[in-house]
Amino acid sequence: MFTATLLTAPSTPSLDANLVHSLRNAWGGSDVVWLATNEAVEFSLPAMPDNLWDVWKDLQGMGVDLVVQPTQGRRKAVLLADMDSTMIGQECIDELADAAGIGDQVKKITARAMNGELNFDDSLIERVALLKGLDQAVIAQVLHRRITLTPGGAALLATMKAQGAYAALVSGGFTAFTAHVAGVLGFDENRANTLLIEDGKLTGEVARPILGRDAKVQALNEITKRLGLEPSQVMAVGDGANDLGMLGVAGTGVALHAKPAVAAECDVRINFGDLSALLFIQGYARSDFVT
User: Fold this and answer.
1) Domain locations in the chain?
2) Tens digits of per-residue pLDDT, 116-149?
3) From CA 168, how far away is CA 55, in angstroms rounded?
4) Does the annotation mark 82 as catalytic?
5) Can you give the pTM of this predicted structure?
6) Which residue out of 58, 65, 84, 274 is catalytically annotated?
7) Which CATH number fits domain 1-72: 1.20.120, 3.90.25, 3.40.50, 3.30.70?
8) Topology, domain 75-291
C-alpha cells in the first residue's frame, strides 16, 4: 500500500475538498483523512500512480505539495537535518559576509555551490578566506540579530522526539551556529565546520576535514549503526547540493524549498509547506503535534 499526502502553506491553508476527492477517486484511493483543516490530507492507494509527476506538476500550479510513498515504515526513528536554509531561514556564512561588507560577493558563491555548480569544499574555503580579520564578536551578533528559525521546526523536533526518535543537525555551516540552534530546538547532536580564530579574529581558515556532502552521508551511517537502526529508518531534510548524498541514502529524503537542481533528484519535494510537512507525511495530524 501507498499513502498520498497533499498539503499547502500553513499561512494560507487552501486545500480544496473537491480536488482531494477527485484525485482520490481517479487513483482508486481509500477514505480521505484530514490531518489539518484545509492544510493537509492523506489517503491510501493500492499502487504508485503512473501519472504521479504530471499530477504533481499540475498541483504545484495550485500551491499544493504532493507526496506519495510506501505506507509501511513512513514514520521514522531518526531525523537528520541540514541547518542553513532548512532549520533556519538564512545561510550563516552569507550573514557573516554581509556584516563584513562583502555580502553580495559571498552570496553569489553560496548560491552556485548550493545549486551544485561549484565544489562545496573549495567554495567554502574560498568564502571563509574572504572573512579573514572579521572580529569574533560578529558571530554572536549575527546569531542573535539575523538568524531566525524555520516555522514548524520546533514542533517537528518535539513531536518526533516524543515518539522516541533521535535528531541530529548536520551542517556544512559552522559549529558556532549549530550548537546554538541544536540547543534551542532539542537536537541530540550537531556536526558542522569550525571557523579558526586567533586573537579574537577569524583567520580566514576552516578546520579540516571539511564537513561536506560525503561527511553528511558518513554521519547518517555512523548514527544509524550506533543506534542499531537502518538508513531506511531515517528522514533526512535539506535544500542544497551538498545534502543530496544523505537525501538519497535516507529512507525518506526531503528536499525542502530546495534549489531546482536538488529538487529534481528527490522524490519528496516540499515547496509550499514548512517543516511541519515532515510530520504530515509521516501520518501525524496537527492535533498530534507536540509544542
Assistant:
1) 1-72, 75-291
2) 898 899 999 999 999 999 999 999 999 999 999 9
3) 34
4) yes
5) 0.95
6) 84
7) 3.30.70
8) Rossmann fold (3.40.50)
